[in-house]
Amino acid sequence: MRKFFVGLIYLLLSLLFLLPFMGIFVKSINLKMWEYVLKSPQTYESLWTTFLVVVITMLINFIIGTPLASFMARENFKGKGIIEFLIILPLIIPTMVSTMGLQFAFIKINLIESILGVAIVHSIATMPYYIQSMRAGYITLNKDYINLGKVLGANSIQRFLKITLPIIYPSFLVGMSLIIIVSLAQYLITFIIGGGQIMTLPILMMPYLVDGGVTNGTVYSVIYVAFTYFLVFLVGRVVKSIYRKREY
């Protein structure tokens, strides 16, 4: 009976997650369209631009979100609830409303139609996910380990790489993966801040889907899924590599 229920769960999950992708993959089987997409310079330009935006977004999240998550997990202070509300505020306010407000500010400081400007907006959209994930990891971290690192003379970077990261590695990897997934899904804010000049993969793909270019759209959809998986896999390998080097 147990094997039956396990098999049933696998079947339901497969239908739920794999069936939609399989439908797109089947429709994308067209050698001429694949040849057109793979020979188009815009395809590789969009992949490179998307990669840069994601990397900068991850760096901003790491620099700002990591210490904030650590502080929120370890400290209790008056007004903590207000800060927690501000952290999740980007999830409550409609994306278009907040982006329109940022657009006027970005025009004044020359960040409009720039990769950095797009990455900053993506950071705002992804920061709540990263902070909440890292905060869950920091809650499980015993302060005695950090204090022991201080006693042994380790600086803050060494303590993070040798003590903190190995312990909260799952939370860190989940947080970075969410940044990649959510960042790649941002079409509207990329279009508004990028002004159509910052050609990420969703910006390139969307017109084919909207205008009824089913074949081209499905080809780009397959590339989109594969590229997302590649970035998540790459982050996991890089973090594991750093962790293993620190062990020796």
UniProtKB/TrEMBL annotation:
<dbReference type="InterPro" id="IPR000515">
    <property type="entry name" value="MetI-like"/>
</dbReference>
<feature type="transmembrane region" description="Helical">
    <location>
        <begin position="111"/>
        <end position="131"/>
    </location>
</feature>
<feature type="domain" description="ABC transmembrane type-1">
    <location>
        <begin position="47"/>
        <end position="235"/>
    </location>
</feature>
<feature type="transmembrane region" description="Helical">
    <location>
        <begin position="219"/>
        <end position="239"/>
    </location>
</feature>
<feature type="transmembrane region" description="Helical">
    <location>
        <begin position="47"/>
        <end position="73"/>
    </location>
</feature>
<keyword id="KW-0472">Membrane</keyword>
<comment type="similarity">
    <text>Belongs to the binding-protein-dependent transport system permease family.</text>
</comment>
<keyword id="KW-1003">Cell membrane</keyword>
<feature type="transmembrane region" description="Helical">
    <location>
        <begin position="85"/>
        <end position="105"/>
    </location>
</feature>
<protein>
    <submittedName>
        <fullName>ABC transporter permease subunit</fullName>
    </submittedName>
</protein>
<keyword id="KW-0813">Transport</keyword>
<keyword id="KW-0997">Cell inner membrane</keyword>
<keyword id="KW-1133">Transmembrane helix</keyword>
<dbReference type="InterPro" id="IPR035906">
    <property type="entry name" value="MetI-like_sf"/>
</dbReference>
<feature type="transmembrane region" description="Helical">
    <location>
        <begin position="167"/>
        <end position="199"/>
    </location>
</feature>
<dbReference type="Pfam" id="PF00528">
    <property type="entry name" value="BPD_transp_1"/>
</dbReference>
<keyword id="KW-0812">Transmembrane</keyword>
